[in-house]
Amino acid sequence: MGFKLRYFSLVLFFAAISFSTVRAQESKSSSATITVDLKTETGDMSPVWAWFGHDEPNYTYMKDGKKLLSELAALSPTPVHMRVHNLLTTGDGTPALKWGSTNAYTEDAYGKPVYDWHLVDSIFDTYIKRGMKPYAQIGFMPEALSTHPQPYRHHWEPGKNYGEIYTGWAYPPNDYNKWEELIYQWVKHEVARYGKKEVESWYWEVWNEPNIDYWKGTMPEFFKMYDYAAQGARRALPTVKIGGPEIAGGSSSSGMKFLKAFIEHCISGTNYATGKTGSPLDVISFHAKGNPSVVDGHVRMNMAPQIRDIREGFKIVASYSQTKNIPIVIGESDPEGCAACGMATNPSNAYRNGTMYSSYTAATFARKYLLADSLKVNFMGAVSWSFEFEDQPWFYGFRDLATNGVDKPVLNVFRMFGMMKGKRVAVKGSQMFSVKAVADSSVRGSHTDIGALAAKDKRAATVMIWNYHDDDIQDEGSPVTVTINDLPVKAVKLTQYRIDQQHSNSYEVWKKMGSPQKPTAAQISELERAGQLEMMDKPVTVPVKAGQLQTQITLPRQGVALLKLDW
């Protein structure tokens, strides 16, 4: 049975478990307080969140893919970076789950390379037209270059053995000189197409998760493949910025071992391509994932593994004097590992349609900033491995930002982030869990994590507040008293934006429609409106007394609010 048929037989059951029966009300939490000190700056409100990625590159230039990219570009004050797999994979460009291809490299009957960039151009043109930047992934291995080319094209579906995806594209090259020349020709082509200055502004990274089955070679073979790729890129553009290794699990034993060995190879190892000491390293990347489950009929998240991955990865980079200032990108940073596994086949992924994904995202990004501050690393970006899946069932429970062109609640968290500019400032919360507590045991027990991230600009301040708990259970809401100190004016315009069951939530509107799989044009228009970020009420002018503003909100569990102050 195909996954779409399984969807219709199972999704209603799991949706009922995850979103209806668990709505039994809990006792109201005690009142929480949030205190913001505008005078105490903690760092830049850098857009580390403005990085996204996905497996399927051919969705990029399709109808809903282009629509979503336009929305992502519009929400960020700086260029959004996009990372995708399969940019060198052999095939005809037909998209499928966890698959894509560009046919960039083939060989003729005599073994002579044939380069075809038209699909890569379609992908990168879509970014550049919107002012976005490729976080260009060098991978995977073209069929003609693979040491084990068959089988090559996989036909995996949700519910099948995940190991089926690791085919001929995951193997080392059969000719490292041809591999180096391929990367040279690729970077040379991009410089000719977009100009030296533009390509100099990109970051390139080699491969994906080489410490697991995405790489079917040895660790030394990966280093060799990396060295030849970097040599080809630098030969085409000496100022190109390149790095890696995008390992899976920054706190796993295999991940830590691989990341350390990779850094040491780049610092002092013998370069396989040049014979010299060391390899180019302009960006360091690793991945971090959480681990949800189903407990007592509802989804229970677990952000502890993800926070530990980030903490340990940061520590490793900071431990070498040669790398402590190099930019770090968390190349995939997500609640779990399989974006294309929907809730019908993976019920623990039922968090993805509603506000649980929103509150989790707000709470984890705040901790990423705090970890970077405490460990003094150059944290540049965290890729949310979530995009969209073209022409799939509505609200299937993929880890995506939109479904059939309709934005899901989680996208509105990024809209909130896009409104936060300037400097981050100090925040204290009476019910905000410490980073250590979250890394040790996530957010369990009787209290929810009611926390905040705040920023100030020249004539504005923003405070993002979340009410998060690992257990995806709704309640009536908790009162939160918000105090903002050191305002330089006597009055401000206060606007509250909200993501909860009634606001910025296309999923709840879709369910009230009867969960249609073939919504009418009028219903689609209503869903599109519901997918946008909503204000709670109209903006109000609020007096400031002795530099202090105090206001109270009631924030439901798994809700996110943004308070924007303008003067």
| Number of individual domains | 1
Give the CATH superfamily.
Glycosidases
Determine the structural class based on helices, strands and strand pairing: alpha/beta
Main sheet properties? 10 strands, mixed
Q: How much beta, percentage-wise?
A: 15-25%
Unreliable residue stretches: 5-29
Instruction: Based on Cα principal axes, name the global outline.
Output: globular
Helical percentage: 25-40%
Distance between the termini: 59 Å
Secondary structure tally, helices: 13
| CATH class value | Alpha Beta
Q: Say what the CATH topology is.
A: TIM Barrel
Structure summary, number of beta strands: 24
CA-atom Rg in angstroms: 24 Å
Question: Any idea what the CATH architecture is?
Answer: Alpha-Beta Barrel
* Average pLDDT: 94
Task: Please provide a written account of the structure.
The protein has one domain: TIM Barrel (Alpha-Beta Barrel). A hairpin with a 3-residue loop joins strand 17 and strand 18. The chain is 30% helix and 24% strand. The protein is of the alpha/beta class and 567 residues long. Strands 1, 16, 17, 18, 19, 20, 21, 22, 23 and 24 form a 10-stranded mixed β-sheet that branches. An 8-stranded parallel β-barrel has the order 2-3-6-7-8-9-12-13, surrounded by 5 helices. A two-stranded antiparallel ribbon has the order 4-5. It starts with a helix and ends with a strand. The protein contains 13 helices and 24 strands. The radius of gyration is 24 Å and the shape is globular. It comes from Mucilaginibacter pineti. This is Xylan 1,4-beta-xylosidase. Keywords: Glycosidase, Hydrolase, Signal. Belongs to the glycosyl hydrolase 39 family.
